[in-house]
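Build the 3D complex.
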Amino acid sequence: MTTTPSSAAGEPAVDSVLAADHGLTGEEFGGLCDLLGRSPTWTELGIASALYSEHCSYKSSRIHLRRFPTRSPRVVHGPGENAGVVDIGHGWVAAFKMESHNHPSFIEPYQGAATGVGGILRDVFTMGARPIACLDSLRFGEIDGERGARMRHLVDGVVRGIGDYGNCVGIPTVGGETGFHPSYNGNILVNAFALGVCREDRIFTATASGAGNPILYAGSRTGRDGIHGATMASEAFDAESEAKRPTVQVGDPFTEKVLLEASLEAMRSGVVLGVQDMGAAGLTSSCFEMAARGGAGVDIDLDQVPLREASLTPYEIMLSESQERMVFVTQRGQEEAVVEILSRWGLEASKIGRVTDSGRARLTFRGRTVADMPVEPLVDGAPVYDRPASPPADLRERQRAVDCEAPEDPLRALRSLLGTPELGDKTWIHRQYDSTVRSNTIVGPGSDAAVLRLKGTPSALALTSDVNPSYCWLEPRMGGRQAVAEAVRNLATVGAEPVGMTNCLNFGSPENPGIAWQLRECIEGMAEACRAFDVPVISGNVSLYNETEGEAVHPTPTVAIVGVIDRLRGLGTEGDLHLVLGCGFWRPGDRVVLLGSDTGEYGGSAYQRLLQRVEAGRPPAVDLEAEAALCALLRYSRRAGWLSGCHDLADGGLLVALAECAMARGIGLRGAVGCGPLALFSESQARAIVTVPAARTEELLAAAETSGVAASEIGEVGGDRLVLDFDGGTVDSATDDLRRVWTEALPRAVG
Amino acid sequence: MKCGIVVFPGSNCDHDVYHVLSHVLEQETTFLWHQETSLEGCELVVLPGGFSYGDYLRAGSMAAHSPIMAAVRRHAEAGGRVLGICNGFQMLLETGLLPGAMRRNRDLRFLSVDVHLRVERDDLAWCSHYRRGDVLRMPVAHAEGNYVDTGEALDELERRGQVVFRYVDAAGRREPAANLNGSERAIAGICNAGGNVLGLMPHPERCAEEMLGNRDGLGLLAGAVAGGGRVGALAAAGGQGR
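Done.
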């Protein structure tokens, strides 16, 4: 079939103006014409615009992403697959990835967030891995008062959307984070992470190979929803964004669940060669990416694609982002076995084409060739931009040193902080998510790191996601470092060794040199930390153009790191593991030891932002060597079985961390520190508090000294009050009273 | 005891129950596909949690019409043991094997949290590892667990002692604040008149192992497979097997 593709009657003639409407620059359009040796058809233009979109091509970030280390002896599949895969021992591998669904969630929060979860779950199970956990990193704007009405609606919709989808599919949401900052008033962030596990010999890749092998379409029918979703996600918002509501996909978690089961069963059948879900840019990206990975071509008969409405055009079929759809490549002649499995799960399947050795994607529709494009140059040869980058004009102003006033009454300051949605208890959110299904959850949401046992092995996985957008805004490189350092530290609190990282880089428009600089700097800082901690980046996602009418979000490079605890036994008595690995005080008489040093750092701190209403200065410095020493000490102490609990110092500093430990079970602390009232809120990094039985204190202090980590015993667990002497006074409060302020903060704010 | 776990499209707690029955309690356990019509000789049939058929229409309503449910009904009517957990409880209500219905939770939100349950009967095999008045901690995870029936029917249920578990506070007291989904009379689990069919909203299979920090649910599943034979015989034997 060598018919030159042509546009059909009624389809617009393609020229550079129309291409510009599709987001293609003049240069990109010229390159496309050269590649084809002619003008593209209407369908081809749609395909190219999707593949060249920022969302699919990473054209503005690719050059920076190369900075990340991506290899380690544990890495099985690095970036480029649907999800990265690492070896977690005992014959098992973990596949995981994080992805943004920011733009759709702002337009339609319930469906936007739900389909974000659906998409990331499919990315994981297309690798042959059974999803076992989700995390969600959410950023919202101001939710207080009249101005916050829309934001409260978004919070409610996003949380319901995530919950209804994940709960129905039966994947526990075991953690994540939720932050609030005015920079997200016009663009919220919804970053969904999923992790799956499988036997190491059961991993699949999204590869189309073997000329003549059939391509099967499975799952939901193709409709008009989500057309140009990838392109929308690559644009800034303006006053007309509301009109884009129809480009938000609609999810069906029940179909996802049966697609998950059917796909895993089909993959076990032995006749499936490659699998790919249809995510951003739908059939376009799945066909092109599978073919590109296999160095192959594909012939697709669009008449065979199951449609919701017969009137869909080839252009719409190729760009629809209808959810819960998959593509399978099977052994020739074996497709019926897969069709049978799918139909037993009540899913429709259709043979839509075959793999070729032409290196081209040829699409036919009603006897006409509608597209004939070279695969590899379009996928791997997508444009790469080194966008001009320079520090934002107001950077000096941001970084100006400001004095932080000491609190007159540290208890009042503590209560104020605990009463903000930012630092308040997030149970209102967590309890809308099933966190215990699959019966692996040892430590669930609300702790430094979630811990999941791996059935049939002595080990466990630990998961966390972190980023401090204020730090990143004040000094992107330090913020990038800090995000990785905090995640590694969170894993160390439960004794886990980091084995791989994924990330979601949320920024404004890269066409703004100040934003491009932030992107580059954040990545550089993250990469430095990844190298220092030996953590490979195995997957990730970039979300740019998070801005509305020129107002960009704070740079938010969300980091999720997965860690392995080789042996759970030894960390504590089996029945106490959930307490030992959590971060709350639980055993009266335990000694509280503070690890790490404070240098009084307040730039971008919760105290400065939320109480002093300033966001300025330099964020806390991240000393990677000090972090590594602390983490090594924590892991060592965990393995030795000394620790009965551990909590890292993060937003809000020492006093907030102690309060969190005390509020967890209402068991308090009697202690003393040698610092003044302001230092109780300093956010110096590389610090943690641990609890140990009195008999183990000496050993811990000695180990700390050997490791070069400052350590001091600051008190004893017990009673129902948090009592802490500091230089110049005492903080003394009933834990119940703090708990009330803390637990009421978010429910009150969301109304 | 041979145990069968029915798998409906959308079941998602099937593997969890399987794990406890097969690996923890070491019972012969098999999955039963919803389109089959035989229980393959299983003595205990478990209808697991999840979102069967997406819970479209009403939770559990479509599963109640699955081909296998005719066999489950015959099994129940012959005195065989049937355990419905969460979505499985909803199915038992939809099939009429247990009385009553479920509404959306009181605050109209999905509820994933640990609750406390008071054991109201210990003369059933199910509860043979518990004593009446024991307070158990178990996770719930549902959007429609707000049990309802007419006042008369509820009185009848109480009179016949069919209320097996109630939501209480940690001290075992019936407090409105402890009845989070708003169920009538704080009902968390009920049985049929014969005592061989039990439905409950909380998930015993998620709290049956030391490592997960809570084994309160193990007794229920151990009771479910205790003794074998007819439940009636075990009921007469009281709390044996504790």
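The mean pLDDT of chain A is 94.
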